[in-house]
Each structure stands twice: as C-alpha cells, then as structure tokens.
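Notebook p. 47: complex prediction with (2S)-2-hydroxybutanedioic acid.
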Amino acid sequence: MKSYLVCLVAAWSFISAGASFADAPIFIKFSHVVAKDTPKGKAAEKFKELAEAATKGKVKIEIYPNSTLYKDKEELEALQLGAVQMLAPSLAKFGPLGIKEFELFDLPFIFQDKKALAKVTEGPIGRELLNKLDAKGILGLAYWDNGFKMMSSNRPMHAPTDMKGLKMRIQASKVLDEQMRVLGANPQVMAFSEVYQALQTGVVDGAENPPSNLYTQKMHEVQKHLTVTNHGYIGYAVIVNKKFWDKLPVEVRTQLEGAMREASKYANTIAQQENDRALEAVKKAGTTTVYTPNEKEKATWQAALLPVQKTMEDRIGKELIAAVNKATH
Ligand code: LMR
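Predicted complex, structure tokens below:
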C-alpha cells in the first residue's frame, strides 16, 4: 500500500514538474527524519530561506521534518521514485542502497576530530563517494555535519564490558552491527522515528546518538545513563533525485547550488555548538546521569572498538580505509 502511494505521488510529481518549469513555481520536497531544532533541521530551513531568495520565489522548498512524510528506508525509495526531490540521510543509511563504502563513516574512532573529518568530506575521498550515487539515480550535493555519538541505556556504562547483553538500536549499517557485537551487545536495526517508543517500552535497552538527536527526541527522559564515548560519527549527504535536478533550468540550478554551498557552511558551523548545547540541556533535565570517561577509560573503549576497522575491511575496502587514515593523520 505504501509503495503504491509512493508511486502515485511520484507520478504526479513528475507530471507537474516536467510540464511547468517555464512559468509555474518549482516545488522541492525535502524530507528528513530529525526534529527541526537539530543541526540538520536548522540547515534545511537555512537552505529553504537561501534557495527561495536566490530564485526570487521561483523555487519553493517544502520541508517535512521528523519523519512526517517518510521513515528512513522509505525516504530513499521515495527519492529514487521522485516522490520527494531532496533528502539528507545519515551516511550510515547508504549501505542498504548498495553503496557499502559510505559505512566507512561509521567505523569507530575513524576521525579524531572535526578537522580530520573535513579532510575527507571536503576532499577527493568525499567527492568520489558522492559520485558513486550517480548510478542509483541520485546526485550528492554536499556533506552536512552533525556530531559524535554517545552510548545511552538504563545501566551505567563506564567500560566497554558494561555493554554486554544490552539490546542496542542501530541504523542499518553492517559496521554498526559489528561494533555492537564486539562489545557483546545485541544490535537491532530500527527506524529513527521508532526509537523513543522502543526505549520507553523496553523493546531495546539503549541507543547511540549525538546529543542533538537524543535531546530533541526526548530520549533522555527514558534513558538513565549516557556515556560521552564519542566513539563514532553521524553526518549527512544532502542528495537529490538526479533526473529532477538535471531537468532544472541551468540558471535555477546554479542559484540552488549557491544556496546549498551557503547552507552547508552554516550546517557545518552550527553542528558542534548545537550538540554542546544539547548535552548541557540533557544534564540540566536531570533525568540522565552523564558520564565522561577519563583518559584511561577512553583508551579501553578505543582498544575494544578499533579492531572493527580491520574486520570491516572486506566490506568497505582496505584501500579506502587506508586512504582515509592517510588523509586524516
Ligand atoms: C539515526 O537514525 O539515528 C540518524 O540517522 C537520524 C539522523 O538523521 O540524524
């Protein structure tokens, strides 16, 4: 039923888009799964503002936040069918599409900091990865930052061994699956929109999130413990339906590209401060004990998780991992 609906909307979008570029407004539906008040939510709003101004209202961006239109897996299907034109899925969500290389961003401790990350997202490796989307009818426009993930559950997690037996929600990434398994936890793939309820009802015990996602979904209300592990990364690829994009008048496309460049600068500037603010808000809410590992404890998390880089070599590509390590060290 859902697929049938997606097809109908897609057909309608193509008919209306194709016939009317010359005069009528061009609508871009931008669907995403997080709250408005997150780095991605705010950057999407910024893009809308800049794009509508640059095109003098010729392009109208309709943003559908918080999975109001589609959940994780559906949104990629909807983009390929043309039911929506723009998304910004997390980089962990491209594996099921057949582009496993994106899962390199999920490797634990692959980036020491945001400077190292930028070497990849703003360099040739990032560009080549986006180019791989072409074959799927998708055009990759930009990378938007979010932040480093932290483990949450109802149990104190000071050491990696504390993760044993926990049912942990993950995004649909084989690297994240492996990451939880080496900790002795049981990974469970689940759409982002379902996580709060799953935590509340005990379907899963915990999750891994950057503070901005945890706080804006109110997960701190149902998670007693949060450890500032910063063990992995979440960022996004802003993507469009390639056919739709190629059909846009050249002038409009250029204006939109300019707006996207500016919005991306904004996204990558606010991400860290938004996450810092969210972590403070979690602490202030008083429902969750926030634990920051000391240097020795950090080393135990790294020792437990770094081997995932090796075991996932076959999936992601040994050379690609080596190239990332070379570019970032
Ligand atoms: C998640 O599913 O945890 C994230 O990808 C959500 C998001 O878009 O940040």
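Notes: The pocket of (2S)-2-hydroxybutanedioic acid is lined by residues 33-34, 90, 146, 171, 192, 213, 234 (CB under 6 Å). Residues 14-20 have pLDDT under 50 and may be disordered.
Next step: compare against the earlier run before touching the bench.
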